[in-house]
Amino acid sequence: MEILVNALILILGGSGYLGQRLVSYLQKNSLPCSVATSKPNKVSPDHTVYLDYYDEFQMTQIFSKYDLIINAAGPSSTYCTKEPLLSKSCLLYTSDAA
Questions:
Q1: Could you give the CA distance from residue 66 to residue 79 in angstroms, rounded to a whole number?
Q2: Which of 8, 7, 15 lies closest to 73, judged by CA?
Q3: Dihedral, CA atoms, 53, 57, 62, 63, nearest 10 degrees?
Q4: Rounded to two decimals, what is the model's pTM?
Q5: Residue 42: which residues within 8 A CB-CB, separation 6 or more?
Q6: What pLDDT does 61 receive?
Q7: Percent of the chain's residues with pLDDT above 90
């Protein structure tokens, strides 16, 4: 954990099931983080970034500001139940900046 003390951390999907738990864990360990979410109505920490996961330019701009990005974004269990075939698709993002 010592290596993360000064890192700028972004949690993708931070308002979801897994993301909320990651944020809670990091905060309990005094590691501040920002949360990226596509759902502005969700309750999130002070440092919230609203992100359109289909806007590559926006993602590149935002991602370049962080040292560590944890991807906890994904379809909800409700969506997977309603759309089982579509929920098997995977959103991948790569950047030449790394």
A1: 29
A2: 15
A3: 80
A4: 0.72
A5: 15
A6: 93
A7: 18
Burial status of residue 38 (CB atoms within 10 A of its CB: 0-12, 13-18, 19 or more): middle
CA atoms within 13 A on the CB side of 14: 27
Rounded to whole angstroms, how far apart are CA atoms 34 and 18? Answer: 15
Per DSSP, helices labelled H in the chain are: 17-28, 56-63, 77-82
- Write the pLDDT tens digit of every residue in 41-57: 555 556 788 888 788 89
Nearest to 66 by CA among 3, 7, 1, 13: 7
Contact 60, 1 (CB under 8 A): no
CA distance 55 to 42: 20
**Dist CA 39 CA 30 (whole Å):** 25
Task: Report the candidate in 60, 6, 52, 1 with the shortest Cα–Cα distance to residue 33.
Answer: 6
The most distant pair of C-alpha atoms in the chain lies apart, rounded to whole Å, by 42
